[in-house]
Automatic annotation (TrEMBL):
Domain Alpha-L-rhamnosidase six-hairpin glycosidase: 478-828
One term of GO molecular function: hydrolase activity
Keyword tags: Hydrolase
Class of enzymatic activity (EC top level): hydrolase
Entry superkingdom: Bacteria
Annotated catalysed reactions: Hydrolysis of terminal non-reducing alpha-L-rhamnose residues in alpha-L-rhamnosides
Keyword Secreted tagged: no
Domain Bacterial alpha-L-rhamnosidase N-terminal: 195-346
Gene source species: Haloferula chungangensis
Annotated protein name in UniProt: alpha-L-rhamnosidase
Annotated EC: 3.2.1.40
Amino acid sequence: MKPGIRILSLYDCQLCLTAYFRPEMRVLLPMIITLLTGLALAAPAPPRDLSVNEGRINPIGFHDATPSFSWKLDDPRQGAKQSAYQILVTHTGSEHPETLWDSGKVVSDQSVYVPYSGPALTSRQRIAWRVRYWDQESAESDWSTWSHLELGLLENSDWKGSWIHLPKDDFKAPEELGSPVVHLRKSFSIEQVPEMARLYLTAKGIVDFRINGQLVTPDAFVPGWTDYTQKIETLTYDVGPLLRKGENVLAARISDGWYAGTISKRFYGSMPELLAQLELKSPEGKVLELIATDQSWSYSIDGPITMADIWHGEDYDARKELTGWDLPDYPSADRFKPVSTTPIDPKVRLSPKRFQSTRVIESIKPVTLRKFGEGKVIFDLGQNMVGWIHLQLPARKGQTVTIRMAEMLNDDGTLYRGNYRTARSLANYIPAKDGIADYTQTFTFFGFRYVEISGFDQTAEPSLDWVSGEVLHTDFARTGSFDSSHEKLNKLQSNIVWSQRGNFLDIPTDCPQRNERYGWTGDAQVFTPVSLFNYDTHAFLMSYLESIKQEMKPDGGVPNIIPSNQYRGWVNSAGWGDAAFVIPWELYLRTGDIEVLREFYPMMKKRVGYYTNKAKDGIVDEPKSFGDWLQPKSYGTKPVGTDDRSGETSTRLLTTCYYAYGAKLCAQAAEALGKSDEAAKYKALVDEIKTAASNKFFDNDGRVIEGTATQSAYVLPLAFGLIDGELADKATGHLSEKIEEFGNLLNTGFIGTSVLIPTLEKHGLREQALNILFTSDYPSWFYSIVQGATSIWERWNSYTKKDGFGDDSMNSFNHYAYGAVGGFFYEKLAGLAPSANAPGYSEILVAPILDDRVPLDHAEASLITRYGVASNKWEKSNSAWQMETIIPPNTTGRLTLPFKPEEIHVLKGSADFKASGDGSTASVPAGSYHFKITR
């Protein structure tokens, strides 16, 4: 049989052959068909997990009219690979689907980010697509199931309504804490329920939307936080099932949120506004009727949420509930007044949200409770988390139930709230009647572990089921996992994940609890690699990069906070503004999405150009940088940078390191984009900077000669390739001495710590790297775990059992920057890393540290890549190492082990190890492998 010919099912074969057999012979048909099936070449399984662009699955309200397509091969065979594919795209808005684009058979192994090449797509357009492929033996798969995509409103001109808001005459300057939530409604009638209906929705502020009393979506904090002066995100929802024949009601509640709340000091505007558009459509997608926000809507500010603010929390008075306000037949004239309108500003782009919204991901129950005098009870949820507090407890009519929270407790068991600073961060609930109070917040969120409740019915005995914590974060998929034989290392990984969850809420924030919660660029750039392992943050980071690009200054300057709101003049700290070139490269390296570079390479160049314009003989300084922020111990010299928290590492050295690193990344990006001339230019620039820096910052013996010779003063030049060869070897020795000087402990801040452990490992200081990682002494990752950490802390000693709490002014217990060390777990200890030669795990580097000095008996990492699951795990015994590796279909693996080829026994799969350096390497195709290494 020729390759590529598919076998019919047994049922189909029986139908075909029955006509050729006499009735008395038909009993033999199953046997004959089974025999034929065994002899024939079976077709590979259809592709699965179809997605578009940055991993989005069947999106509604999509942002990109030029999508790309990805799929996975469902083939466990060794060497499973695609040799060709065919994509079929149809327009679904007609009774008979129209083919928009048929790629035909394309001889290619590309199965990720294949660009759509059909006719231009437009707003609202719905398409379906499917794919089939030919495997390494040219056998053809069946077609995949259909996947779908529906575009949102891509142009401002698609919006037919106006922004609606309170009239100026009824608007009062917000209270210091926050404003009441505004209720908005619109009643309309339809003769019949349409076949299809879409709600297009956005707000300046935060909105939850209802139709006929039912929530449109579980999404929280819609639409999200961007620079409202340039772009506002929009969302699309399928609301057909919520409509009814006759009268219908569109109803929304809006709060200040990030737009007009205290978090931005009302920089963007003074009050929230709503823009919405309901379209009733035919099955073909034709708009039959359109209801938009306009002067026919009405409002009320007399509802139950009397105050809502991101920093300060929420107050809910159930006695003021507008019962039935979101349902038909509500007498709105008594309480609702006409809104005011503002036209859509053509200079502010209304753009469909390109990543997932925030949602409640899980619910956590308390593990203990403790009663205090004066009618208070404190619940311990056992985990520092971010989200809402759901109450179900007995309460008295008119008696305020107060919900206070904290990340930590004082020694007497009361809440420690000093680190919240000026954020009120609490909620009040006033019941309308005696009985069970059931309340969850809507327009705020909290960072906490402990919840204090007061004001409940004192005749009731407190119970653990009174409280639960609803965990909120952007709804991206979990992709990576790590496990080992070391309890504290596993706890550290858990803490890293929890801090990512708490701080990846629509933007990557620095902390989720105090009067800050901003998108600090430095924290985001050091943590990006780890974030992409733990979760699929591809689309999330693309959106953040878009915001950086929008707010970049004409000269390449970058605000330290994105969105910058009232801080847009606060720019250019080295290591912070450099997120503009670090994040795009790390995102491309770990996703393989060349569109990342196509979209953001100009921004990378512009940032490096900023440094070039400031450079003097190859050296750059940003004296007002944050430096190596929060260096834990002093060397006894004068701090540099913004203040005494900026450490003692020379800002000229630190900035020049990032200048060289940016030029290096631009060279790599240019090569990936096929811009060889530009790549050569940036490589030459790197060489110029290295020569200048070697002469300026180091003597011939490799000692730092400018500023204080801190650990970071050696680590950063080594990590970023500012020095190499013999000079780097000498500097490595001095770095080792600096570590010994501090008792073989780290003394690095946010910037230095992010690259410390892998740099020590790379430059031959493995033992010191392991000692620093696995110690429980101060300062270290395990030190905070010993003190009770369930998340990553801002400071190594934010709290100690001996000395209590650190400085309240900067003492977050949920701050992910130091979690950047997680990359060493996954890529080095477990040995699962991407390759710059074939980004996005198209080639997987498997090179675990199999060394008896590693205090582990086993380690394993698993990652859902765009191609499928990749994993590596190892276990050691007295006589051997065992290693199991999975390389997903349509990828290859590059295995590097510190053993001689004859010591490596292949128990499963096929791998040919060759001697290389101090060990052996093997290039392997997709498949499952099992190795045993004799000791």
